[in-house]
Amino acid sequence: MRTLRSNTRLARLIWLLVAGVFAADLLLPPQFDIVFAYLLAHFLAIFFREKSDVLLLAVVTTTLTIVATVLKPHEVPLEQMFLERLPPILSFWAAAFFVMRFIALREVEEQQEGRFAALFQYATFGILLTSRQGRIIMANPAVESLFGYKNGEMLDQPIETLIPRRFTKKHEENRQHFHQNPRPRSMGIGLDLYGLRKDGMEFPVEVSLSPFKSAEGEFVVAFVVDNTHRKNYEKSIIQQKQELSSLSEALRVLNESLESKVAARTTELEHAKNDLSAALDKERELGELKSRFVSMASHEFRTPLTSVLSSAGLISQYAERQDYTNVKKHAERIKNAVNSLNTILTEFLSLGRLEEGHIQPKPEAIELPACVDNVHQELKSLFKNGQTFQYDHNGQTAVRLDGGLLKNILINLVSNAIKYSPENTCITVTSRADDKTVRISVRDEGIGIPPADQKHLFDRFFRATNATNVQGTGLGLYIVQRYAEMMNGKVGFQSEVEKGSEFWAEFQV
Ligand code: ADP
User: Fold this and answer.
1) Rg of the Cα trace of the chain?
2) pLDDT in tens, 170-179
3) H/E element holding 288?
4) Are the C-beta atoms of residues 189 and 178 closer than 8 Å to each other?
5) Where are the domains of the chain?
6) Alpha-carbon distances of 49 from 1, 7, 10, 379, rounded to whole Å
7) Neighbours of 358 (CB within 10 A)
8) CATH of domain 235-357
9) I need a labelling partner for 177 at 20 to 30 A (CA). Which of 69, 111, 197, 210 fits?
10) Are 424 and 386 in contact, with CB atoms under 8 Å apart?
11) Is residue 225 within 8 Å of residue 187, measured between CB atoms?
């Protein structure tokens, strides 16, 4: 096609032919009609590049035919001459039309060829055309530079030249297999493919294959892409992924340690908070105890001391008057006041020993009825007018308990029953014992305990609202409860105001 474009010599020949035919037409006698020879020029016009040249040829040959018709000496009228020459003129135009059509089709084909050539030439990926035998028939510049070959150096080389030697045999087998079942596909799916450069260096490639058949035989087009960047990119992504996962692992560990530190710190804070609130409770309790103690002490000490003071004054007056009956009476009062001060001090002493942990129970074999009787004898002087004492026992008499502590408990409960009951009432003590349990209860018919006060009854220094006229420290029941706990026991009560109370202590032996 390139030769045709530059062939101006042929164009000149055509125009020469046209000129020759015109001259011959003019010179030859009318019986020799030569105008159809122009058709030869029209056929040769297929070698023109431009359709306009073909059109020009048609116009020129038509004009020359008409001119020659006019100029030629003729025997028949001119109209007839024109009529005779009309068919050749029409045939020029028909030929011109077909030749122009041919040139248009050729242009389209040339364009397509040009595009394909540009695609092949300027593609940035490698294109190889190989024969069925695996010989390279075409190679574009991209594939040549990819494999480090000079222009045209690859042609007629076996395709295996471009593959590392260790894969050559396998590739030949694969190629045979591909030709048995040819279809477009990617090469080496799931495998890492490598190309071999002319200088012996290997590099990763990606290849896709397309078979095609033509009259010249079977061929395969291979598109080859350099995968080095992609592989490097993949490697760096994998590396980044690994770094990321080790970083996230480190973060997780850090997070866990932070969480455990926070948990430990929270627990510490919780403990500190609990300690602080316990300390505050203790502080508050101490404050309350202090104020209760002050109010109790100021009352309980002042009353007997005032009584001692006034009786002492009266005694000296009665002694002057030698009124010994009254002296005796006030001496008795002083004795009672000192006794009650002594009781108070004894209770304080017990409390002090208790709080300091000096009291340790020492279980021993004791006779329960004898212990109760002993207490009764000791407290006989406290009984009010008409107050009676009754005692019932059930079960075994011998029990294993700390005799001293048990006696203290009974003294407290019985003396309370005496204190908080009016004259002419009965105080009933009941005891029951078996292998496992010892239970003692003290019942009276006294003032009882108001329901609102009952829940505080075992608190230190607590005194019920209906007991303020009776002397007491509010320590007895607290000490009773602590002694019972030391002996693996517990205490309880039930009471009704103005009807009486029943206190009990129960021990597991
Ligand atoms: P105290 O008798 O020295 O006041 P206690 O600790 O022995 O102290 O008793 C606490 C309070 O329980 C008493 O102040 C009283 O109000 C009430 N109480 C105890 N025993 C009886 C009882 N048998 N009858 C009515 N009230 C009682």
Assistant:
1) 68
2) 888 888 888 7
3) helix 228-320
4) no
5) 9-121, 123-226, 235-357, 359-508
6) 10, 10, 11, 151
7) 8
8) 1.10.287.130
9) 197
10) yes
11) no
Give the residue among 444, 437, 375, 385 at the shortest CA–CA distance from 410: 375
**426 touches 257 (CB < 8 A):** no
CA 463–ligand 1 middle distance (angstroms): 6
Beta-carbon-side half-sphere exposure of residue 278 (alpha carbons within 13 Å) = 6
Q: How far apart are CA 376 and CA 361, in angstroms?
A: 23
Mean pLDDT of 307-333: 92
**Protein residue closest via CA to atom 7 of ligand 1:** 476
475 within ligand 1 shell (Cβ under 6 A): yes
Task: Tell me the β-bridge partners of 491.
Answer: 505
Q: Is 473 in the pocket of ligand 1 (CB under 6 A)?
A: yes
Q: In terms of Cα–Cα distance, which of 203, 201, 204 is closest to 192?
A: 204
CATH H superfamily, domain 123-226: PAS domain (3.30.450.20)
Give residues with Cβ within 8 angstroms of 143, minimum separation 6: 126, 127, 128, 154, 224
Residues 210-249 have pLDDT tens digits of 888 888 888 999 999 998 888 889 899 999 999 999 999 9
- Cα angle for residues 445, 446, 452 (degrees, 5° grid): 120
Give residue-wise pLDDT tens across range 125-180. Answer: 999 999 988 999 999 999 999 999 999 999 999 999 999 999 988 888 888 888 77
Query: Token pair 């409390």 is at which residue?
Result: 351
Interior angle at CA 277, CA 272 and CA 282, nearest 5: 125
The pLDDT score that the predictor gives to residue 191 is: 66
**pLDDT range class, residue 187, cuts 50, 70, 90:** low
Question: Whose CA is closest to atom 25 on ligand 1?
Answer: 448
Q: Per the confidence metrics, is the pTM higher than 0.85?
A: no
Ligand 1 atom closest to the Cα of residue 475 is 6
Run of H or E residues at 442:
strand 437-443
CATH 1.25.40.20 fits 359-508, yes or no: no
Specify the residue for token string 């205490």: 491
Q: Is 413 in the pocket of ligand 1 (CB under 6 A)?
A: no
Q: Which amino acid is at 506?
A: E
The first and second tokens of residue 180, run together, are: 């048995």
